[in-house]
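Input record (one chain):
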Amino acid sequence: MEKEFIASISKLIERDLTKLEEEIKLYPSEESIWKVGGEIKNCGGNLCLHLCGNLQHFIGAILGKTGYVRNRDFEFAAKGITKTELVSEIQKTKHAVKSSLEKLDTTLLTQEYPTKVFDYSMTTAHFLIHLTTHLGYHLGQVNYHRRLLTA
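The corresponding structure, as predicted from the sequence alone:
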């Protein structure tokens, strides 16, 4: 059952990262990826960087020991990165997640996640579910941001 759980999480994350890649490619211009205004403070480009940094850190570096070093401030401060560079970052993230989850020791699923993230402890399985839903939540924001700009 544990292997099936990990395979399901991996497939869901890969599916949504593929959708994120499609969303980034659908922006009408490089500039539109970085546009903010009104109540919208996080543009598609920053959300993309945030999702990639988040997954490469919490799955890649923490669980997969990839050596990735996260710069969360950069994820939200960067501007003007090209579509090609964003897509490349998504591809790196897909690889880091897939390779890290493929070699994950299934006994870790029921153990406490190795790093304190919130103000409560949680199992690795719980946190993997959180990461998957976090990706879906922000993916929806990217989609909405893009459609607002192209309406």
